[in-house]
Each structure stands twice: as C-alpha cells, then as structure tokens.
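Run log, item B.
One chain of 493 residues. Sequence copied directly from the ordering sheet:
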Amino acid sequence: MTPVGLLPMRTGTAVKCALLLAMVPCLIGCTTVFDNQPLNRPMSEVFVPQPEGARDLVSENVIALSLSGGGLRAAAFALGVLQALDEGEGGSPDKTGWPTDLYDDITFISSVSGGSLTAAYVALKGRDGLSTMRESVLLRDLERDLRVTLWSPTNLSRLLAGGLNDRSNLARTLDKEVFAGATFADLQRRRKPEVWINATDLYNRTPFPFSPQAFQSLCSDLASLLVSEAVAASMAVPLLFAPVVLKTYPDHCRTPLNPLSAQLLKDPARVATDPVGAVARAMSNYRDPSRMRYVKLADGGLTDNQGLASILIARSLGGTPYAPFSEADAVRIQRMLFLIVDAGRPPLGDWAMTLDGPSGVGVGLAAADAAIDSATRLSADAFRTMVREWRDAVVRHRCGMTEAQVRRFVPDRKDWRCDDVQFIVGTISAESLDPARARRLREMPTRLSLPVADVDAAIDAGRAATRSNTALHEYLGARAAARAEMAGAKAPR
C-alpha cells in the first residue's frame, strides 16, 4: 500500500479534536463534490475479442516480475531492480561477468501501488526510462497538491464523504507531469513488457487488474483509458483518496461471460470461499445493471500487496493447461524466472516492548497491516505452488502435441524438446542486504515524497538485492548452459 499518512496529532490538539467531532453531524450532511467521474469508454463497435492470456510476447527466455506497494520507497527499489537487469548494456558480459541483455527478457510485470509507478513509467519509456525515472518521477514531490490535514472543516467533510483527495490531486499530477497523457494504447504499442496494474474492487472485495480481460468483463475499452487513472487507482489508499470510478457497460458487450466463470457461479459455496469464485461473481455483477453500474477502485495492496492474486486468478479462469500464456508462448518458452519484488516493511515501533500502546490510530494501522500481510503471504504461498503445477501442465501439453502442431510455432525444432521447460520463482527484498542497508530501507516512510538521499538509497538497495539473488543466478546458469550447448551443437566437427 501507499499510505501518505495523516499528520500526527501533537500535544494541545485535544480542543481542536473536540470541536471537529462536535461538527461531525453538520459535516456529514454537507455535500462534497469529487472529481471522480468515470473516464473509461464503452467497448467499440469494431471490437475484436482478445483471447485469454498474454499477447504472444514470450521467447525462449522470460523474466516476469511483480512489484509490490510501498510508496516511493517501493517505486525506487523496483527501479533499482530493473536497472540491475539492464546493467552493462552492449551484448556481452561486463567485467564482473554480469550478462548485458537481461532487460530484453523482461516480458511481464504485475504491479501494486508504488510499484505501479515504476511498472507503467518504464513500460512506456523502455530502456530510456531506467535513466530518466529518478529525475522525472522519484524526485518530484507527489504530495505537493495533496490534502493531508484534518484541521479544516472542508477536509474533514471530504474525509467523511469518501476521501481527502480525488482526481484533481494525484491522478491529474501523474497524468500531466509523469505520463504526459499516455493511454493504454500507448502501452500496448510498446509490445513488451506487458503490464498489469492492480487495484482493489471495493464492492466485490476482489483484485482488479487493468488488463484486457478485466475490461472485457466490463464491456469497456481499455486502450483509450489514461495510464494515470490506473496508477492512481492502484495507489488510492482508502480515506486518503476517494475511490477511482469505472463505469460498467453491459449494453455494449460483444463477448459472453467467461464460460468457467459461468460454471463457477453454479457453486455458491465456492463463490463464497474461493478467490476465483469471488472474481467470477464480480464478473457477473459487472454484466448485471441491477447489481452494479460503477466499479469503485482503491489501493491494490488491500487484496494483495505483491500483485500475485490476479495472476493466480487469470490462470484458473484461462481454461487451458498453459494459461495465462498463449499456446505459442507455451511452445516457445524454455525457462521463466518470476521475481517477486517486495519493498514492504516489517512491523515497526516499540509498543510491543511496553505495557502501554499502541494508540488508537496505531491499533487501526496495525490491524490493517495484519490483514494485508496475511493475504499477501497466502497469495505468495499459493503462487509458488501454482507455478510448479503450471510448468508441469505446459510440459504435458507440449509433449502431447503432434509434429505439425509444434512446427506452427517452432519451424526449426532441431534443438527443441517438449520437456525442456524450467520455471523459477525468487523474491527480491531487504532480507538479502547487509544489516545497515536493510534497516535503512525498512525505516523509510511509505510516502509519495522522499529526500534525495532516501531515493538513491532505495535504488541502490534494489540493485544490490538483485545482483545477489540466488533465483536470478540459477536462471543465469540455465541460460548460459543452454547457450553453450547450442554453440557446441553448431560447431564444425
């Protein structure tokens, strides 16, 4: 999540608090106008349905990432990870032996909250974004135009009406100063990496990725939507931000509901207890104008602060052994590294050492963190299990294909084996850093404005944690071995 944080109460504010509380009945009756009109458009008459899964982006080597929430700390840490994957550009290993073309392997990014800033910016700018993001994004004061104090009747009225800030604050700043009016059509023209920016559907209590499949459920056009809207939704901490609103367009649907979703709806117990069943119900609600006309979105970290849940759900609803890959992806791939980039913070404060505390506000924040961290841990554990099963399902599918089917996707199958598939999952976090560097990263506040020194320290921490990551080195070893084997096969005898 990306909580900017209300200004802390100080000694002597009790009278102000009492006055504000006395005004609550009046303020509740006041009308607060939010700038939250839905900007998404209905599905076009010329809409061409996109099949479930990726857009045939996969080559032999794939790096996928999930970028966690955590404000600018998370955005800077994620930038350091991406920079490490791009270091030594030039086509051959640098003097440390680090390969130089790993950036081209980055195929997919799922992001939440602060991580969405980095995912969207770099996906739009490409390699150039790795060198410009620090100045263009991270050193900006994104809190400059935010309302963060309650010592104003107008602000308290906004808070009680739904949130201190709306599109006129963060989303508009992002659109004007960071993304320059870019839409998802601009993202898609870059081809890869494909990016899923994750928010939370507050009504259905489910993850909501800004993906073509999710927008097909809304019968809405994703391509024309501003990227800034998705990033703002992903970062919309409840109460600090009013929800970002999308409109449903059931009268403009061009495709039926996902058949697996329709099947799941026949099992009420699964709908009530299974995350995939809950998403199936949400998709049904989007098509039912008597249930939903608007989707209210908040911070993606509320349902999963690592952006893994939407991938788990997409796989379950894909309907194929290789989903969310396309069949071409499943045949071409040889190895995939999935890096979970976690810039979250462990419990902080000293109240566990004393009889007193935490404060009332501290209890609320700790309770929210406990719920978020618990959901995130469950998603991460389920994700690792799913990846193992996914790899096995891809192998079974490949090994069951005919020669003609394989040649559709791999015309020269000389070095192709149906079981030559390796999926690796690793986590990049502060835990691999030296104690001093790890402590500094953990203690950085979760804000949208950080001192230059903190931004640079977070970027450096991301680079260092990536270079020492064991899963990445396992992937590099497998990649190098495959290249050596191929070179040996091509050598004259």
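Observations after the first pass:
- Confidence is low (pLDDT under 50) at residues 4-24, 88-96.
- The chain has 19 helices and twelve strands.
Flagged for discussion on Thursday.
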